[in-house]
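Appendix B. Worked example

We walk through a single record from start to finish. Start with the input: the chain for DUF3109 family protein, Phocaeicola intestinalis, length 193.
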Amino acid sequence: MIEVGDVVVSSDIFTGKFFCDLDACKGVCCIEGDAGAPVELEEVEKLEEVLPVVWEDLSPEAREIIDRQGVVYTDQEGDLVTSIVNGKDCVFTCHDEKGYCYCAIEKAFREGRCAFYKPISCHLYPVRLGKCGPYTALNYHRWDICKAAVVLGEKKDVAVYQFLKEPLIRRFGEDWYAELELVAEELRKYAGK
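Next comes the structure step. The output line below is what the pipeline stores for this chain.
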């Protein structure tokens, strides 16, 4: 782990390669897993605010779950996560005509229908936020469904932190990201690359 400001960063975020390959995975990260996407407490209100905007984009099953239990629940580990359908699908998932999965919130954001992008945990994926004492910890989460993203990242030579520039700035700020880039440059020099 490498300390950048008040954040500890797993070294494989600098060395690992990643670039989403939606054509290969079809957005399956929105519909696979044993719980919903992690949500920060302050995001719950934003999810509720955006709900009327995305309501028609959601499946009837997702609407029924939201009506019954809300947009979030507490999972087995005690974490706040988005509600799920069929025991695994995020309620905010929508599909296009090709069968690709998308976040209905992100879709609405890109279409200018709302100001909230999506939960930061989704935007940061494949990096997961955690705690390490008083520090926020950034860990690279490897998942078989993202193998194509690793291959494409290697082909394009894009490190995890580079792929996630926008969400890392969204979460930690531009100054923090600039410091992260300096650390990455020093690590490259040290490694002789």
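Two observations about the output. The chain has two domains: 1-18+126-193, 26-117. The first strand starts at residue 2 and ends at 4.
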